[in-house]
Amino acid sequence: MPVDFATLKAQVSQKAADYKNRVERIQTLLERARHTLRHAHLSLADIRSRVETAVKQNKGWRGAMPTKEPLGKGFPPPEVSLEGVVVLAADGSQINPDPHGEVYFGLVNLGLVAMDRGQTPITLVRSHLLLSELHEREGFEASVLLRRDLYERLGLAWAAALIHGNQDTLHALESTFHNLGWAPQGVQPAEVERLKAFHPHPTRVVALTDGPLELWGPRREEGYGDFQKSLAHYKQALKHLQDLGVAPVGYVDNPRADLVVRMLELVAEDGAPPSDAHHPWAGVRDQDLWVEWLPPGHRTALFQIRAQYLEEYEEALRPHFFYLNVGLAQNKPILARVELPAWVAQQPEAVDLVHAVLLWQGSIVPGRLYPYILHRAHETAVVTHEDRRQVTWMVQHALLTKGLTADRRSHKQRAKDDSAKRNHYER
């Protein structure tokens, strides 16, 4: 049946009015938050103390904590040479298992890209099928998403180790790949040699992924034990990057987080003890704090992300972040959140390097203010509907040769397929 447009029209009108009222309320709160950011009455040490108290008292509190940089200060584009700097990027795409489909399987497709200022980027793709693994645990789709994020970091560590020629790290990664049933060392030898020879002696390497630096997924207490195992491998991949001196970066485009806002609530004169129920500035986003005064190409101060669960990360790996205005016009700011591990955030020259790399990457394609290498990694990794059909047929054929059932569509799916056929014939 079609959408009930007559009823929907009235709803749209009412919802728009409600939205307008909400925007006006949030604008008032935003002005208070901006004033608190620029004119905080507490020292950085006192703010850090309040944040630590909030984390200790409330398991669900997640927010920002200041570092040594002044809260309301902006930092201009650094004068950093990118000669000899290699940038890596990884992006994962996946086929999520369909409990109503012909075959119950998942797939993770990993795209890797390496580039510098002087050479054409090289790309590499690795695909990993999940079949029997999905029948051994609950939370199948969550397992595929965890694998995708884990493989991105492992792939970056593997590519960086190849470029640096670090055999110890390669051997350690091969062991991890073996435990996961995944073998990127099985890439065609010619592709491996291209990666090895891409830049034999880079001055620095920066490794980008799209999204937060930390690993997200259902945790053990929510019924998915696979998370803790994935987290251990994930942290080890970050440690490999640290040992290689490679700066991992999580790039969050159009961020909607309120990490700094939650911190400012603790700073305000009328701030109440933090709790899930008490969020007086709900609806105010971090990026709105800076949009009126952070010039193009400038970044904000560095902050650390604080939450109880982040105690699972070693101190050197705990995520820090800054906001970066990648826009080109003074009156059209475009902010991204840039996440770094603590060991990178504590090196001013490394922070400047990441700042410069992101401004360069965002300027490569005119009008597309997003890191070019991340876009290339996405293009390399993306899985199409036709790809899914082809993989489904391949798995079905393999199961048939083993004498197994190759079509396990649910009755719900069969009914949907029959309905689609009838609608097609009726047109």
Give structural notes:
The chain is an alpha+beta fold and 427 residues long. It is built from 13 helices and nine strands. The protein has helices spanning 5-38, 44-57, 140-164, 167-180, 189-197, 226-243, 259-267, 286-290, 342-345, 348-362, 372-381, 385-401, 411-426; strands spanning 62-66, 85-95, 106-115, 122-130, 204-210, 246-253, 303-307, 319-325, 335-341. The protein has a nine-stranded mixed sheet with strand order 1-7-8-9-6-5-2-3-4, sandwiched between helices. Strand 5, helix 6 (226-243) and strand 6 (246-253) form a beta-alpha-beta unit. The longest helix is centred in the first third of the chain and has 34 residues, at 5-38. It is globular, with a radius of gyration of 24 Å. The two termini are 14 Å apart. The mean pLDDT is 87.
